[in-house]
Amino acid sequence: MVNIEKKLVNYIDGQWVLPDRNNYTAVVNPATGQTITKVPLSTENDVQAAVKSAKKAQKEWALVPAPQRAELLYRVGSMMKERKEHLSRLLTMENGKVLEEARGEVQEGIDMAFYMAGEGRRLFGQTTPSELKNKFAMSVRAPVGVVGIITPWNFPIAIATWKSFPAIVAGNAVIWKPATETPIMAYELAKIFEEAGLPNGVLNVVFGSGSDVGEAMVADDTIRVISFTGSNETGKNIASKCGMKLKKVSLEMGGKNAVIVMDDADLSLAVEGILWSAFGTSGQRCTACSRVIVHKDVKEELTERLMTEMEKLTVGNGLDETVKVGPIINAGALEKIDRYVQIGRQEGAVLLAGGYTLHEDKEDAGYYYVPTLFTDVDRTMRIAKEEIFGPVVSLIEVESLEEAVEINNEVSYGLSSSIFTQNVNQVFAAQRDLDTGIVYVNAGTIGAEIHLPFGGTKGTGNGHRDSGLAALDVFTEWKSVYVDFSGKLQRAQIDTEQ
Ligand code: NAD
């Protein structure tokens, strides 16, 4: 039995505080349609309180030696490990993903804690010779100050750790706005930070809507970085506002990811990879496979095998360990998925499996969509180009690797891609030519590891990366330091020939 608070409150300046306005919205378990808690709809005043606390705390935090800041992350990682099962069950209840995947997501957060804690003893800069005598030159990473992170519902804890852990170890103070659909992970993670001894104000959690809390964060001048993960539309909106303020903004957004299956592929492996990356998290991953670009010579066999395996996928409440595909986050998302399936039919694609919701006649029965497969999909169709964010896959036939790569690259997103082939020449050509931030060979489109950069090209991002060392670039400024110990004024570029 997992206990959940009846109402959540904000975490500001190390205190659990009521929101400015007595306004809450329900948090619904997507597997049952039942309300499991309520989350504040905070206002700009709550954001201002968090900014005030973060500004004060950051000055002190930045002076704590980085290895000591890292000790705190080690404690956070250890506590997450101890509470892994508890956190995973709560995650399944608020987000719907099956327990096995929830455990994987929590593990990702634990890995990130230990990895970023290691950075406390690195945070490497560079030393380099000066062009002048008796002069020393180096570059160091400096914290940016107060940073804002805005996260989506589909990875409520992992994405938050990708952003907040590097920010904290680098000496910043954080204001975090989680998605209102999945606030429980934020609440639990803040509790862990509190118990681990994080100084008041270094992490602040303000619950609420994007239009109130998110926009107030974007508008605030003290917050010098916005690190956002979510939809393309919201990301562009945030980026344009940050642009006018010259505020650093890191965006991780949507995807239209493809698995390419060549004629020499191990088809059993390819089917496993497609199932895992298309229907894991019910297709609600930014890296989910929603296109299978298949060589004409193996299309028929792959399709048959895929359909056979899809029939075995059980759909239901993710707390049931036999279930493979959990619910969709809410009724709106369910409708969007079904709308795309209707569009696919109208466009002339052939529906081979799924294409309908479950339990729609029952009230409070959760939001479920059956794994869906289209064939005869033309590359120009909307279902082949737009992000659906559900368990819907389109099969597109090709005659060559060149054609497959071209189709992979012609969408507006560039997050993840994968190729199944035994041919080493094709492997190297594909990893060079696929225009995505992540490429997998003989694996599906999901499965990122936290010590590598995570993100994408084109409409998926704006050149930054979460996770890996690249995350530090978002939350630090490079400072170049010159120390002249010659005792006289030496002029760079002028006195070099003496
Ligand atoms: P969303 O854009 O609706 O919301 C994301 C966050 O932004 C939420 O916290 C939301 O409250 C906030 N927000 C909304 N409007 C805002 C505004 N005007 N100003 C500031 N903040 C605002 O996205 P979602 O539906 O929660 O998530 C699904 C999307 O996220 C998909 O497109 C998916 O591909 C993407 N995603 C991308 C990655 C990645 O790393 N590339 C990872 C996970 C999800």
What would you call the quaternary organization? single chain
First-residue to last-residue Cα separation = 78 Å
The mean pLDDT is 97
Q: How many strands, which pairing sense, and closed or not: the largest β-sheet?
A: 7 strands, mixed
State the helicity in percent bands. Answer: 25-40%
What radius of gyration results from the CA coordinates? 24 Å
Number of H- or I-type helical stretches: 14
Strand content: 15-25%
Which hetero compounds are present in the coordinates?
nicotinamide-adenine-dinucleotide
* Shape type: globular
Structure classification: alpha/beta
Uncertain residue ranges: none
Strand line-up across the major sheet: 14-17-18-13-12-20-21
Count of β-strands: 23
